[in-house]
Amino acid sequence: MRDFERPKAAFFSFTSCEGCQLAILSCEEALPEILKRIEVVNFREAMSERSDDYKIAFIEGSVSTEEEIARVTKIRERADFVVALGACATTGGLNCLKNRFPMDDVKRIVYGKDAGQIETVPARPIDSVIKVDYRLHGCPISGKEFLAFFADLVMGRSPRTPNYPVCVDCKMAGNICVFEKGMYCVGPVTRAGCDAICVTYGSVCWGCRGYVDDPNVNAHRETLKRYGLTAKGVAQKLDLYGGKKQ
Amino acid sequence: MEKDLNINIVEVTRIEGHGNIVIDVRKGRIKELRFDIIESPRFFEAMLRGRRYDEAHHIMSRICGICAVSHTSASLKAIESAMGIRISRQAALLRKLAFSGEMLQSHILHLFFLVLPDLVGAGSIVPLLESHPELARRTLGLKRLSNDICAVVAGRHIHPISLVPGGVAHTPGTGELKTLKKRLEDSFRELDALFEFLSGMPAPEFRLEREFISLKARGEYAAYAGEPFSSMNYPMDSISFRKRIKEYMVPHSAAKHAKSPRGTYMVGALARVNNNFRQLRPTARAIAKKAGLVPPLTNPFQNNMAQLVECFQMTEDAVAAIDKLLEMGPRPEPLKRPKAYGTGIGMVEAPRGTLYHEYRINKDGIVERAECIIPTAQNLRSIEDDLRGFIPGILHMPKKEISGLIESLVRAYDPCISCSTHIMDVRFV
Ligand code: SF4
Ligand code: SF4
Ligand code: SF4
Questions:
Q1: How many domains does chain B have?
Q2: Helices (H), B298-398
Q3: Which of A132-141, A163-172, B119-128 has the lowest mean pLDDT?
Q4: Are the beta carbons of B11 and A19 separated by less than 8 Å?
Q5: Fewer Cβ atoms within 10 A, N terminus or C terminus of chain B?
Q6: What's the 3-state SS for B76-107?
Q7: What contacts B3, CB < 8 A, 6 or more positions away?
Q8: Distance from Cα A239 to the centre of ligand 3, integer Å
Q9: How far, in Å, CA of A48 to CA of A53, rounded?
Q10: Tens-place pLDDT, residues A153-168
Q11: Please, which pLDDT band fits residue B428 given cuts at 50, 70 and 90?
């Protein structure tokens, strides 16, 4: 990654809400600077030009059709460095909720008698198909984290992903633990890096950033023990993002 | 004109989602015309099935990152109407404030990132940053502001956090609201500049009489609140909406199309300005008049200008909501608890048009069935009809110009293909 000037970068969108790309467009102040540092050659949502010549590929979304599997494979062949953007791409995200049912049922539920017209396979993170060099977690990704990663990338530093639970962020944010209010939270097993924003804004951690690498060891044992809970029990209670164990 | 023309625009760019345009003209007559939707479906109805009511809004927000507040709001309204929950006045004001923020954000994004490059003949905003730095700076400032409105109320715009069943789980501070108000008042300057710029670039001429459907509310411009209304004036309300609007599959599209009892209709900013012109606040109305947007409206290209009119409206709405909140003195409130179960409907005006969510929730609080009708799905038929009406008049032009105009027309609709394929009208039990 080290020694190229103004590398060409491309953005791709697979099965997703396009919220992670939007999160990048929402870094308004940084956009002119970003565009100085990389040459964006493909960003369908925001530009007409496109090219297949790029070094870095940012990929948002899960793969959920055969066509997408072929397309993501092509991108891997062309890019030197692949970044998975957001939960859909890193863990499969909410898309995996459909995997609870057989695909024929899923199609019938949504399209009824027209189900035959539609093609789908169970939703998967992109690293189930191709090698991924870096993951930006979250649903959506955090703009702050994207910018930090971006700075590392252009400076040739190796970026680091936090591997401690959201509870640590949550304590730092000065929140009262929601277990006190009798609510469930998967913060103890979820990878930090979001400043526990959901708890700060009155909700709970839903686990959108996926599990820490070894949730049983790293989980915030104390919090859980105080409430007579286990990491596994909590994760079972809130399994929105539990589609794929990482 | 005896002309052959074959246009196949693979992946219309600078729209939200993946769509192709296929047009085949033989001897001056349109043989084939399709706006193909090629997005991968996500099956939200299946995703929602069997989930708890207090997860539904969180899941449904992920239909679309751009209209996340709209999907969350429609979802919450459906949940709350099914479960007999009435939120407090403060919660309603906060939700409306976030709603204004999203509408602003979405319109600015569309106008700046997607439409302005067309107007100056560029492929993206990248050259625009160099050629029009002042305009770019102002518009990015507006976008920042709209983001911040949602951030103050809901933590963030993309997948708002504090908007939950029973109310709003976070209370912004008085100071934050005052700062926001000041910035909103100052932002009229930037909106004026954007208006000046857009007015200097008149929309292509094209007229087609049409039916407009949007919500309509008493005493306010319909956005978060209102009941469905047709410019054709036949009776309709949220209960009868799903019966009036027929959705159907077409072979070339992963998204359903929709028709009203009268056939083709249009939803979105143009429809709202047409149907709710009298509810526009003074500044927004003055801008609409200046831009010649006085009903009855007929030109779909004017949807861009209608969005800008709404930027003025949303800014005024946001200031009004903040004033009321400050008057009341915002304070933390407990969320309202569910009292009932059954079927509920939630409707809002998403940036791109009328949005309908309907859920059936059982006594254990589990969602058993969900149906949604999405703005872009309602506009697909209108887009195709407009192309059919528009193309004969431009056939004498060079192919490149024709393609450009066709893309601009599709883009004026601001189609959000993510939404329209990610959710369909469904029945599951
Ligand atoms: S991770 Fe979340 S925000 Fe990002 S694309 Fe997927 S659903 Fe959207
Ligand atoms: S369990 Fe949840 S609320 Fe409690 S400290 Fe951890 S992240 Fe915060
Ligand atoms: S608090 Fe949890 S759900 Fe919220 S952003 Fe952080 S990891 Fe995701």
A1: 1
A2: 303-328, 375-390
A3: B119-128
A4: no
A5: C
A6: HHHHHHHCCCCCCHHHHHHHHHHHHHHHHHHH
A7: B25, B27, B28, B395, B396
A8: 13
A9: 15
A10: 888 888 888 899 999 9
A11: very low
Q: Which residue on chain A is closest to B9 by alpha carbon?
A: A48
Report yes or no: A198 at the B interface, CB cutoff 8 Å. Answer: yes
What's the rounded mean pLDDT across residues B46-61? 92
Residue type, B245: I
Under an 8 A CB cutoff, do B117 and A48 touch?
A: yes
A79 CB under 6 A from ligand 2?
no
Closest-CA distance, B299 to chain A, in angstroms, reads 25
Q: Are B48 and B56 in contact (CB under 8 A)?
A: yes
Average pLDDT over residues A88-94: 94
DSSP SS3 for B49: coil
Please list, in sequence order, all residues whose beta carbon lies within 8 angstroms of the beta carbon of residue A214, skipping any fewer than 6 positions away.
Answer: none
Task: Say yes or no: A5 contacts chain B, CB-CB below 8 A.
Answer: no
Q: Test A28 with B147 for CB contact under 8 angstroms.
A: yes
Q: Are A198 and B64 an interchain contact pair (Cβ–Cβ within 8 Å)?
A: no
CATH 3.40.50.300 correct for A3-154: no
In a domain, B426, yes or no: no
Query: For A154-179, b where at least 16 C-beta lie within 10 A, e where not — what string?
Result: beeeebebbeebbbbbbeeeebebbb
Give the nearest partner residue to B129 out of A32, A106, A197, using CB atoms.
A32
Interacting residues of B293 by C-beta distance below 8 A, sequence separation 6+ = B273, B302, B305, B306, B309
DSSP-derived 3-state class of residue A5: coil
Tell me, what's the pLDDT at B420? 47
Pairs across A and B, CB distance < 8 A: 168
Instruction: Tell me what ipTM this predicted complex has.
Output: 0.92
Here the tokens at position B281 are: 């606040």
Q: Across the interface, do B43 and A120 touch by the CB < 8 Å criterion?
A: yes
Tell me the CATH number at B415. 1.10.645.10
CA of A178 to the centre of ligand 2 (A): 6
Asked whether residue B244 is domain-assigned, the answer is yes
How many residues would you count in chain A?
246
Chain B CB within 8 Å of residue A14 CB? yes
d(CA B308, CA B272): 12
Q: For strand B353-361 and strand B367-373, is the pairing parallel, antiparallel, or unpaired?
A: antiparallel
Nearest neighbour of B68 by CB, restricted to A13, A19, A93: A19
Q: Where are the alpha helices (DSSP H) in B238-293?
A: 238-244, 269-275, 282-290
Question: DSSP of A129-178, one letter per residue?
Answer: TS--SEEE-BTTB-HHHHHHHHHHHHHTPPP----SBHHHHHHHTTPPPG
Ligand nearest to the CA of A84: 1
Distance set, CA B11 to CA B14, B326, B375, B410, B417 (Å): 9, 47, 20, 12, 11
Q: What is the pLDDT of residues B79-100, one digit of tens each?
A: 999 999 999 999 999 999 999 9
Determine whether the interchain pair A45/B18 forms a contact, defined as Cβ–Cβ distance below 8 Å: no
Domain coordinates in residue numbering, chain A: 3-154, 166-237
* Distance from C-alpha of B301 to C-alpha of B217, rounded to nearest angstrom: 26
Tens digit of each residue's pLDDT (9 = 90 or more) over B133-174: 898 889 989 999 999 999 999 999 999 999 999 999 999 999
The answer to whether the bond into B296 is cis (omega within 30° of 0) is yes
Distance CA A120, CA B365 (A): 29
Is the confidence at residue A220, as pLDDT, over 90? no
Closest ligand to C-alpha of residue A192 is: 3
> What is the DSSP code (8-state) at residue A191?
B
Q: Is A190 in the pocket of ligand 3 (CB under 6 A)?
A: yes
In a domain, B296, yes or no: yes
Residue B260 lies in a domain: yes
Q: Are B146 and B105 in contact (CB under 8 A)?
A: yes
Helix (H, G, I), strand (E, B) or coil at B181: helix
